[in-house]
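tool_log.txt
---
The assistant was asked to compare two proteins side by side. It first ran the structure predictor on the initial sequence, then on the second. Raw inputs and outputs are pasted verbatim so the downstream comparison step can read them without reformatting.
(1)
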Amino acid sequence: MDKSERYDSDWRMIENLFRSYYSMLRSYAFRLVNDFCLAEDIVQDVFMSLWNNRNNIDFDSELKPYLFRAIYNKSLDYLKSKKTTLVGASTGLVVGL
């Protein structure tokens, strides 16, 4: 398999995962961050990370738990950064910008 064929194969695999799990993952992210647009961004970020790290991921294993954990972690990262920014704003300090 040459580089172009491998790229196409990887792209189809990620696209199939995206189509299969997007709605479920977006709903999960929304429950965590309570913001629909942000939930969409989180899911996109997770899939971009999946694409960028596709050579290091075992696609033969079950990916659903991996994807949900990635959404959870990305959502927590956002909530932590938001909390830091809000705490800084309430004290008069500019934090998290």
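(2)
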Amino acid sequence: MKHISELHESNKGVSAKPIFKSSLGGNTTAIQLLRNQSLKEHRSKTDALLICIEGKVFYEDEDENEFELFPGDFVNIKADVKHWLESPMNSQLLLIK
């Protein structure tokens, strides 16, 4: 058994590590954002679910959605919608596609 934070290098500001891949094509990625780090604007080719596991994250997208995510909160991300994240504190997330 591992803790999600053990998947990432402790000094890397933004880190994404695949942790599960389904034989049907879906996957789950563990994301780490350290304090005052950002995940730059990008698009997902498929719909996705972003879940905050630890910390606090600000999610924004080109459709003018803005959410403050705390542990247990999640947001559905539509395919091909540009979005980005900012983290005011060390945070851990799961991205499911």
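---
observation on (2): The chain is about 0% helix and 55% strand. The mean pLDDT is 95.
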